[in-house]
Amino acid sequence: MTEKTDTHPKTPLRKGFLRSLVRWLAIGLVLLWSLAALILVTARWIDPPTTVVHIQRRLQAWIHHMPYHERYKFIPLGQISPDLQHAVIAAEDARFYQHHGFDWHQIRIAAEDDLEGDRTRGASTITQQLVKNLFFGTGRSILRKGAEFTLVPVAEFVLGKRRILEIYLNVVEWGPGIYGAESACRYYDGTAARNVGREQAARLAAILPAPLKRRPERMNNYSAHP
């Protein structure tokens, strides 16, 4: 008579393993979030030496055996032309000084456009884009969005608007290997960021939605915008 194999003792072991796995994953996520929040706190005083987007581009160039030359120089906000500051805010987040990290008005408009199949632009604020640049790169996922949603209020609270704008203008991607206003102005216009005028600023701001595809000389229509 063939004896039946008793599989019941394995079930509690399997459940225990899954519970432990979930627990350690949760602990890991909490630790990563805490590290990101700590980095945001230190960024109030310390300029970021790099971002996940910068690292991502280096890895992509290495994987595809492409040449890569990084231009990145962090400068104080006072050394960036007010015209360029205003142009970037107007192009990327017109209500930057009115919201607290999320522009719910633009989110509602974007959601309505999605339903109508007529989405023309995103609803991410400068604060959201900064958090994404610093920690998440250019990829998209529900997990990334969830973490971003919890870190944006931290950035608004510990950094404040001026520091958020300063860091964003210094780390944002402005072309292949070109990061920040100073590098962009010197590369495209051969001048320092403090010297950029209104038309140059408008053309530079127009690059930001697609920095790997757009060039300022093709953005002449933007320079006519008020």
Please supply descriptive tags for the structure shown above:
mainly alpha, 8 helices, about 5% strand, about 230 residues, 3 strands, three-stranded mixed β-sheet
Explain the overall architecture:
The longest helix is centred in the N-terminal third of the chain and has 33 residues. It contains eight helices and three strands; from the N terminus they run H-H-E-H-H-H-H-E-E-H-H. A three-stranded mixed β-sheet has the order 1-3-2, with helices on one face. Helices cover 56% and strands 3% of the residues. 27% of the residues are buried. The C terminus is likely disordered. By secondary structure, the chain is mostly helical.
The neighbouring-strand order within the major sheet is 1-3-2
Q: What's the overall geometry?
A: globular
Mean pLDDT: 86
Helix content: 55-70%
* N- and C-termini, Cα separation: 90 Å
* Rg of Cα set: 22 Å
Major pleated sheet: 3 strands, mixed
**What structural class do helix, strand and pairing data support?**
mainly alpha
